[in-house]
Amino acid sequence: MKIKEITAAIAAFAPLQYQESYDNAGLLFGNADWDVSGVLLSLDTTEAVVDEAISKGCNLIVAHHPIVFGGLKKINGNNYVERVAIKAIKHDIAIYAAHTNLDNVRNGVCEMMGQRLSLKNTRVLAPKKDLLRKLYTFVPHASAEKVRSALFAAGAGHIGAYSECSFNGAGEGTFKAGTGTQPYVGEIGSRHSEAETKLEVIFPLYLEQYVIKALIASHPYEEVAYDVVKLENEYAQVGSGLIGELEAPMDEMEFLKFVKQQFDTGCVRYTPLRGRPVKRVALCGGAGSFLLKRAIGAGADAYISADFKYHEFFDAENQIVIADVGHFESEQFTVDLFFHILTEKFPNFAPLKSTIRTNPVNYL
């Protein structure tokens, strides 16, 4: 198996196009065409994790956090990032990161957090815009089903939990075939009228090249007329954070104790209690203070995330209970998510979970 087969499976689940503009997800070290000797899964890539990969015969590390986040101007071994780079290159270790793209997909990092609390009726807290496109095309009635099916197979036509969604309208198209053409219908030099179906489908932006390729391959016309239009709609399946409901309301302090237990954290930093039960819960893996107003606006009773600064706790303003569980603790189940993605795609392939606890924060 090649490294690109492993990374393609992860990218199919969490497309790289969904990462934030500041991020650096993808294959950071190594060659996609290398054969895979073994895969080690980790939250972070530290020197100890690289050593573990070497000792276990794994030449691919799949991590959540990119070891190279900003630019590297020198690689002299003066810090842990440079030392990891040197060791990985020296030992032909490839490193792949799925970061904010894995955060932003519907069943990604935040869903793993929600499962720890058995949240129901979950949805993306802050869906993203500008990720959807609509295709309009015109096809003879007799070929409409063939083209429709090809577009669906390429990934078009999904709206929420519904698939194979399209709009079809009957109309009449006209064209005159020029010299040197090979028209599917009509004659060269004469205007032709054809009963056609106007076909409309929605698709996510990252699939555009596959959708257009499927359209052209399945369409009978020599020249295919189509339009791709950018949509302003929010994409409910992609975005930051998650919100859902507990199976039953909980007392605030009991809820915080429950969170502490489920996230196996040594400390939960929280804001003053409001004296009201917790039913609706919002959450975000990693640094999530940027979603606090969204959580309040969505009517959440509590917001679980990490890396809140002192003054940001004041922003709760007694409208919500903030529970900061720690960055590592909020994302630690990402390794299980990687394992699930790969074993589902490759049932006979066994990736290894790192035994190194990379959390740099300790609690007394």
From TrEMBL:
- Chain positions recorded as a divalent metal cation 2 binding sites: H64
Residue positions annotated to bind a divalent metal cation 1 are: H65, D103, H327, E331
Q: Does the keyword Membrane apply?
A: no
Q: Which UniProt keywords apply?
A: Metal-binding
GO terms assigned for molecular function? metal ion binding
A GO CC annotation given for this chain: cytoplasm
Give the signal peptide as a residue range, or say none if absent.
none
**One Pfam family named in its UniProt record:** DUF34_NIF3
* Subunit (UniProt): Homohexamer.
What NCBIfam families has UniProt attached to this entry? Answer: YbgI_SA1388 (TIGR00486)
Q: Return the similarity comment.
A: Belongs to the GTP cyclohydrolase I type 2/NIF3 family.
What name appears for this protein in its UniProt entry? GTP cyclohydrolase 1 type 2 homolog
